[in-house]
Amino acid sequence: MKEYQVFKGSFYVATNKSDADITITDTRTGVTLCTVATGSQALFVAIGSFGGGGGNTKPLEEEIERLNGVVSEQDLQIDILTAQKRAAMEANTMLNAELDGKTEEVNSLNSYIGGKATDVSGYADDIDGIRERVDAVNAKVENLEGANVVPNAAYVDENGELHGKAIVYNTLKTDANGKRYDVIEGQFIYAPGKAENEDTEVHANLEACLTAHGLTAVEA
């Protein structure tokens, strides 16, 4: 028997095409949501894997915006420290030229300048680290965009409730264990294969089952 098994963070579909029925089961409660009889039909279905965010890239975009703001603040701080360093150096030059015998004060200013130089260097290192994080987040966004992530695609929330929409996909792949699936991350995917004996009534019944539980099958 084929099974849709619902658990946090993903939606699993067994793919033994010789089975006759499709059962959608919530694995955390053991409750069978519905069963769709396929008769003798060899209905191909896919594994749709998606994170709790359901493919929504907005949190990543917000993180990039926040980090860019931090970088701007750090850049401003460096400007301030650089100005302070320049002023201290000018004061040091004046003291060396005009205030003979003020060696102790000059040494104190030299120490102050050295501290400001260290601060500037530290902030520069911080900015480099933040920029690396921004680049990493940008890379994640690019990876998601490359995977054709659909914002607000289906997902299972903390309470095990299904949200969003299912995407009908006909592009299946086979993993090392022989399971057929579609690997587009961030989407719930209902993917019937192109078997010669596909039954449209079976598909309609399966889509009705999905719809009854808050999912809408959409042709892609």
Can you walk me through this structure?
The chain is of the alpha/beta class and 220 residues long. It has 2 domains: 2-55 and 151-219, no CATH class; 58-146. The chain has helices at residues 58-98, 103-146, 200-212, and strands spanning 2-7, 10-13, 21-26, 31-37, 48-49, 155-156, 162-163, 166-168, 173-174, 180-181, 188-190, 217-219. Strand 1 (2-7) and strand 2 form a beta hairpin. Helix 1 (58-98) packs antiparallel against helix 2 (103-146). The longest helix has 44 residues, at 103-146. The model is unreliable at 1-20, 39-57, 144-154, 165-173, 180-199 and 216-220 (pLDDT under 50).
Mean pLDDT over the full residue set:
56
**Largest sheet, spatial ordering of strands:** 4-3-1-2-5
Radius of gyration: 30 Å
Strand element count: 12
Helical residues, percent: 40-55%
First-last Cα distance: 26 Å
Shape: rod-shaped
Q: How much of the sequence is in beta strands?
A: 15-25%
Query: Count the helices. How many?
Result: 3
Oligomer: single chain
Let me know the largest β-sheet. 5 strands, mixed
Overall domain count: 2
Order of helices and strands: EEEEEHHEEEEEEHE
Low-confidence stretches: 1-20, 39-57, 144-154, 165-173, 180-199, 216-220
What structural class do the secondary elements suggest?
alpha/beta
